[in-house]
Write a structure and sequence with these properties.
By secondary structure, the chain is mainly α. It has a single domain, classed as Substrate Binding Domain Of Dnak, Chain:A, Domain 2, CATH 1.20.1270.180. Helix content is 73%, strand content 0%.
């Protein structure tokens, strides 16, 4: 998939951010639960920054009516993501692993939703199933 210049720049910039924070955390060699929780939270933060950049870039191209509709879709998705991940992590809700499991779920759902937004950003002209 070809990345837009804005998307490519945001991935490069966020990659540098991730590398600097990841080295401070040493996520490749995290051994304590606290470190694993911090690394998972960092991964979620990175995914959140990426999706926010792409959401804003895509939304800027839409008509006012489409902007509002897309906002409502995104708000519904956020509610789904949060509720779903809270449920998925509920088996360990009282444990020290809970923040890691919750963050991993939220990061993965955010990563997948970001792919959907990127696909919308790169619709082919004439694709009637793609609002642009």
């Amino acid at each position: 998939m070809k990345l837009s210049p804005l998307l490519a720049a945001s991935v490069i910039a966020l990659g540098g951010f991730a590398a600097s924070n990841a080295s401070a955390l040493d996520c490749q060699n995290a051994r304590t639960q606290a470190d694993m929780n911090a690394c998972s939270a960092h991964a979620l933060e990175l995914q959140t920054q990426i999706i926010n950049a792409n959401y804003n870039a895509y939304r800027a191209r839409l008509s006012p009516v489409q902007k509002e509709a897309f906002k409502q879709v995104q708000l519904a998705w956020i509610k789904y993501k949060d509720t779903s991940c809270t449920y998925e992590a509920s088996g360990v809700a009282s444990g020290s692993v809970y923040p890691m499991i919750l963050s991993q779920c939220l990061a993965e759902k955010t990563r997948v939703r970001n792919l959907e937004i990127v696909a919308l950003m790169h619709c082919r002209e004439g694709d009637l199933s793609c609002p642009n």
